[in-house]
């Protein structure tokens, strides 16, 4: 990568720098190669480090770069397609959905979880809005099932699935030991219900400390938040909030809904 001084351009300086860096990534760097440090890059291009960071953050959002804890900024590998929720009416854990159960804990819901569970809408919206306040009382426990999605040995997504105890009344302490077995027991009981429908929303967010640790990212790194609500005749039976690494995922839209594709992890 040669020295390049940026000239005055009508577009923001960081955006022009992003274009220059993107071309360099195509020709001068290999997948997995570590970029020079910020000080060296900023001096090479004659820009402030704040401008450089903006350009690097944009390239990370576009999946061109990965910021790896303890390693630095590396060139991201090419993406491979992995469908998420291609079956429009299936419970979590059915038909090898690509997630691995980690654990499940029972506790009283927070205000944020109550809000998620009480929201009506989707194909069973009328039923959900009619019974939400009765089913999701603040003094009734909710199971939080933790799951991860792994591609070639690396965690690329983490999920929190909120299941009210009222949705799985057949679950007992004997059926739900600790760890992954407990999580799978909750999922099995959930799958006994008749699923009326589901809806899904996607938004860009920043990794919280817990998410960052789980995904081996830096706190504040860009992530995709995919929220899915599962409806039965009685209302919202469960809500999933899945956090995907934005540097490894892109969204495509088609007749089958939303597909999320994940990058192939470099060795």
Question: What does this 3D model show about the protein?
Answer:
The protein is α+β, with helices and mostly antiparallel strands. The protein contains 7 helices and 11 strands. It has helices at 13-28, 38-45, 49-61, 111-118, 125-135, 180-190, 209-215; strands at residues 65-68, 72-75, 79-82, 99-107, 142-151, 154-164, 197-206, 222-232, 235-245, 249-254, 257-263. The strands form 3 sheets. It has a 6-stranded antiparallel beta sheet with strand order 4-5-6-9-8-7. The protein has a 3-stranded antiparallel beta sheet with strand order 3-11-10, with no helix packed on it. The longest helix is centred in the N-terminal third of the chain and has 16 residues, at 13-28. The radius of gyration is 22 Å and the shape is elongated. The relative contact order is 0.17. Mean pLDDT is 78; it is low at 121-134 and 254-258.
Layout: helices, strands, pairs:
Blueprint: H1 13-28, H2 38-45, H3 49-61, E1 65-68, E2 72-75, E3 79-82, E4 99-107, H4 111-118, H5 125-135, E5 142-151, E6 154-164, H6 180-190, E7 197-206, H7 209-215, E8 222-232, E9 235-245, E10 249-254, E11 257-263
Antiparallel strand pairs: 1-2, 3-11, 4-5, 5-6, 6-9, 7-8, 8-9, 10-11
Helix pairs in contact: 1-3, 2-3
């Amino acid at each position: 990568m040669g020295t390049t001084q940026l000239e005055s351009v009508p577009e923001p300086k960081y955006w022009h720098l992003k274009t220059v860096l993107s071309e360099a990534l195509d020709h001068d760097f290999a997948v997995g190669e570590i970029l020079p440090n910020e000080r060296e890059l900023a001096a090479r291009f004659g820009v402030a480090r704040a401008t450089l960071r903006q350009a690097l953050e944009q390239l990370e959002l576009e999946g061109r770069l990965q910021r790896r804890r303890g390693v630095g900024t590396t060139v991201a590998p090419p993406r491979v397609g992995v469908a998420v929720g291609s079956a429009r009416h299936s419970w979590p854990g059915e038909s090898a959905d690509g997630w691995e159960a980690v654990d499940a804990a029972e506790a009283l819901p927070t205000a944020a979880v109550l809000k998620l569970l009480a929201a009506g809408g989707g194909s069973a919206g009328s039923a959900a809005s009619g019974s939400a306040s009765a089913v999701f009382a603040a003094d009734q426990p909710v199971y939080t099932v933790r799951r991860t999605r792994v591609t070639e040995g690396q965690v690329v997504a983490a999920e929190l699935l909120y299941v009210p105890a009222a949705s799985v009344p057949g679950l007992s302490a004997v059926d739900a030991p600790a760890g992954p077995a407990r999580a799978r027991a909750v999922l099995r009981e959930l799958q006994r219900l008749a699923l009326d429908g589901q809806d899904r929303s996607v938004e860009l967010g920043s990794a919280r400390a817990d998410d960052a640790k789980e995904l081996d990212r830096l706190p504040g790194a860009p992530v995709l938040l995919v929220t899915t609500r599962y409806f039965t005749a009685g209302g919202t039976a469960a809500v999933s909030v899945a956090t995907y690494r934005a540097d490894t995922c892109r969204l495509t839209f088609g007749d089958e809904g939303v597909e999320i594709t994940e990058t192939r992890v470099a060795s």
